[in-house]
Amino acid sequence: MWRCECGGLLDIDLRAKFPVDMIKQRPPDMWRYREALPIDRDESIISFNEGFTPLLEVTIDERVLYIKQDHLFPTGSFKDRGASVMISKAKELGVERVVEDSSGNAGAAVAAYCARAGITCDIFVPEDTAREKMTQIQCYGARLHKIKGTREETAQAARQAAEHMYYASHSYNPFFFQGTKTFAFEVCEQLNWRSPDALVVPVGGGALLIGAYLGFAELLSAGVIERMPRIIGVQAARCAPLAHAYEKNFDEVQSILTRKTIAEGIAITMPVRGPQILTAVRMSNGHFITVSEDEIKGALRELSAQGFFVEPTAAATIAGVRKYLRDCRRNEEIVSTLTGHGLKNTRKLRRIIAHR
Ligand SMILES: *Cc1c(COP(=O)(O)O)cnc(C)c1O
Question: Which atom from ligand 1 is nearest to the alpha carbon of 211?
Fold first, then answer.
């Protein structure tokens, strides 16, 4: 079951525990927060010992901040956090076949974990998906379906297939968010069990943003931290339905005109968890930032010059960081992240770097 009979979204109700002294002695991966992850039996866990990615001090526009290097996951994006927990749950439920739709990275992550779990998988992507991402999905042995049309039409095709397969969706399936929440646990532990002042993250469908909010909320209610960081969501100006709804003070995302952006990973015109994303940002006292194509390219060149090799979507976040730095307090402690590896889309990168 991937949504309620009424059509509504499903979420997991869980009282997470954090036995800090025990956690510190465990291997440095995301499964060290075992008591907060809703998998019943250890034998069900499908993992590459992923996570606990480095939280690195980086200087951007003469300001020092922390950047979590989530492009260093086994499949090259933070989507592995969600896929590890979701596919572990599928394994635990005895699922033999799953379907997922994606602009590439979530599909690659689900395909990799299914390969490790011995689960058959069908991945739907829009026809214009980056070639590297399609190759990666096929290498893992998944069946790749290229759909003519938009990202939304791709999702519709997958939902149709989901009538007779387990829908391992990174938008609907609540277990995916149980994995992405480990982002918050790691940031908290790496800051010596504190929360930062602000968190600047990319947002399309909200897998990372909602996960981070959920994670900090659990740390807060367990008494591990004392306050929620401000959550800043970065969208591409060309596809910014969430920023638009926030500005207008709407509780739901409206259908607005969007255009193609080089930040393909966050090009979501109708996020199914839109109301949850808006609530998370408002509850944390945060806001949204939009970035232009030129600002994304500028951030990508800046990151490359500092030795980071990331895909354009990841650079969009840092373009957002640059804007946030202009308006925030001088001494604010800021955490941001790099979400996808550069090898995910070399053609786009070559074009951007050629215009240096
Ligand atoms: C999925 C993804 C994002 C964030 O998208 P959400 O759906 O909001 O989690 C950001 N960067 C990359 C590289 C991605 O693959």
Answer: 9
